[in-house]
Design brief:
2 domains; TF_FadR/GntR_C; globular; Arc Repressor Mutant, subunit A; DNA-binding; mainly alpha; GntR family transcriptional regulator; WH-like_DNA-bd_sf; single chain; three-stranded antiparallel beta sheet; Four Helix Bundle (Hemerythrin (Met), subunit A)
Length: about 250
């Protein structure tokens, strides 16, 4: 039997998809401590608390199970899971293989309108950082990477990396305001943008590689700490991420 007590607000009307709204409510509840890892929760109770039918709740939970945030317990309900360090390392391994080569391509023929869009995005990120708006900053960060990926000319890669970043977000894996300030994260992007401005593909690739490796290692270490594991995060990283796939 489910034992977790839920203290969530009912969902209001939405112009978007109900499933996504439920997913966001669950992720927010985990962030706020209203839903706890390891606790068993009832699908029926969740639908009652949120004021929605069980069908969209199950749909949302199926998506969250697929990415590793929850686990269904047969005839009992579901449990919140902590982010898996290996899953996070695998996500960054994929991003390294795709984003480093993409930024090289984007830099070589960087147009003036593209550079202007990057500058505008960096300015918006800076304003969000100074205002302490972490959620807005995270979305702007995601959009900055999407700008670069789309400029590289492969929509499938852009969409795939976007889905990887969304998975990371839903898992609650973020260094922002934990091990790095928003300003720190903003400044990490500056060398990437400057290399693109110089149309130096190799330098842009190196800067993107360093940025993703720094972020990935921190997130793996955070996940290990959250699990109170004795595993070595650097060993996990080294076992999953193969440096040889990036020609620096």
């Amino acid at each position: 039997m489910a034992s977790g007590v839920l203290a969530l607000d009912k969902l209001g009307p939405t112009g978007g998809r109900r499933t996504e709204q439920i997913m966001h409510a669950i992720r927010s509840a985990v962030d706020d401590g209203n839903m706890v890892a390891g606790e068993l929760y009832s699908v029926y109770q969740l639908s009652e608390v949120l004021g929605v039918s069980r069908t969209p709740v199950r749909d949302a939970l199926l998506v969250l199970e697929q990415i590793g945030l929850i686990k269904f317990e047969r005839r009992q309900g579901f449990r919140i899971l902590l982010p898996d360090p290996v899953d996070i390392a695998e996500i960054f391994d994929a991003r390294l293989q795709l984003e480093v080569s993409a930024v090289r391509r984007a830099a070589v023929d960087a147009s003036l309108p593209f550079l202007a869009r990057l500058d505008a995005q960096m300015e918006q990120m800076l304003r969000a950082a100074d205002a302490g708006e972490s959620q807005s900053f995270a979305l702007l960060d995601q959009d900055l990477h999407a700008l670069i990926l789309n400029e590289a000319g492969n929509k499938r890669i852009a969409e795939y990396v976007g889905s990887l970043r969304e998975t990371t977000r839903l898992l609650g894996a973020s260094t922002m305001q934990r091990t790095r300030s928003l300003r720190d994260v903003h400044e990490e992007h500056r060398p990437i943008i400057e290399a693109i401005r110089e149309r130096d593909g190799d330098a842009a690739g190196r800067m993107m590689y360093e940025h993703l490796v720094a972020t990935g290692r921190l997130l793996v270490a955070q996940a290990v700490d959250a699990q109170r594991s004795t595993a070595d995060p650097e060993r996990i990283w080294a076992d999953v991420v193969i440096p040889s796939h990036v020609q620096l």
